[in-house]
Structure formats: structure tokens, C-alpha cells
Amino acid sequence: MRTLVIETATAACSVALIAQQRVIARRHEVVGRGHAERLIAMIAELPDGGRAPCILVDCGPGSFTGIRVGIAAARGLALGWGASLHGYSSLALIAAAAFDSTTGCSDLAVVLEGGHGEVFMQGFAAPLRATAPFTSLRPEAALAAVSADLPLFGNGVRFMTALDASRMSTDMLPDAAHATLLPSQFATLSPVPIYGRAPDAKPAARKIDLAGRST
Question: Considering only CA atoms, which of 101, 103, 107 is closest in space to residue 122?
Fold first, then answer.
């Protein structure tokens, strides 16, 4: 059974068509903020226009806009195709790829660029399992929260190495093709955004008029 994987949580935009843990076709580009312009075109470039009975989409954490673009596209395609829809975390995807590509690595931390000068961070161990909930922290707090010998992976590592150049780190963006490395329990999330922070916008304060009525 084919699965269309959509990845838009960071500056990368990637899609992959996979079946039985094998990549049939893939597209991967670093687009910055151009996800809305490229995503559907990239899907259309896949065999059969990317059509699949299952869709798997990155729910975050990461770019607010990128996550919303990916999930909106996934929901629309799932509705049109009558496909099942599930989500996964960008942090788990990078961890799975890091363990696969790094010999002898049994523990690591994934660090992704966040908002407001913070990073998203979560620890993982092999075989793939989370060792702690993910957090959004200032880089200096994130650095203090992990042991000095723990390797770091993700597009947020540059904020950590700017504070300590001796840290073992690998700059890495998520890639939809690496979804083949995710155990099933990491690929069955509800397809809703994982933002990692509360929204900046706040509900307007209720006002009381001169007659004592709430407005």
C-alpha cells in the first residue's frame, strides 16, 4: 500500500511516495518560506500525481506557516482521494535519520529552530524512543539541559554551537523519504499542528460598558 509523505515543518519542503518501507519516488528542496508555492507542484511530480490511499504529514514542531501549509494540503488531498491521514513529529523524523546514519550512536538530542530566539529540543534513544518530552527553550538553557557528550542533530544546532563550539553537532533538515525509518507508533499521530509554543495573539479583553454590560 502506497503512502504519500508530506514534510513542510522547516525551511525544507519534501514529499515522498513510499511502499513497504521502500521509497518509490521523492522530491526535496530547501525553499525557505516557499512551501505554499512548491508543495502541490512537488506532489504532482510524483508517479500518479502522488495519489495514495494513505497520507502521512509532519505536524511539527517547526515553522508555524510551514506546518499549516502541509496539514492543509494533506487534509484536502485525503478528502479528495478518500485516503487515511496520520501525522508524525519532525523531531522523531530527524532522530530516526540520525540513528540510521550515525554508527554507534545510542542517545542523541534533536534541536530545531524555534521562534522568539528559542529552540525546540527533545532527547531520543535507540531503538527509537523519546527519553523526555520536547521543550522550547532559549539556546543557553537548552545547552545546560543536555550532557556535554550528547550529540546534537537538527537545524537549530548552530545556536548551540555558537555558545559552545566543542559540542558534537550535525546540521540536518527533515526529509520526507526518511519516514521509512519511523516505527509505526511514531507515524500514527493525529494530523493536527504541534506548535511547541502558545500563540502570540491573545483573545481581546472583554470590556464593560457604562450600563454594566459585557461587550
Answer: 107
> Is residue 154 a contact partner of residue 112, using CB atoms and an 8 Å limit?
yes
CA distances to 36, 211, 213 from 208, rounded to whole Å, are: 42, 8, 5
Structural contact between residues 40 and 64, judged by C-beta atoms closer than 8 angstroms: no
Q: In the predicted model, what is the mean pLDDT of residues 148-162? A: 96
Is residue 28 within 8 Å of residue 176, measured between CB atoms?
yes
Residue that has been written with the C-alpha cell 526529509 in this structure: 175
- C-beta neighbour count of 50 within 10 angstroms: 23
User: Which among 77, 44, 46 is positioned nearest to 191, based on CA atoms?
Assistant: 77
Beta strands in the chain (DSSP E): 2-7, 12-19, 22-30, 54-58, 84-88, 107-113, 119-125, 129-130, 135-137, 152-153, 169-170
pLDDT at residue 197, as a whole number? 59
pLDDT at 115 (0 to 100): 87
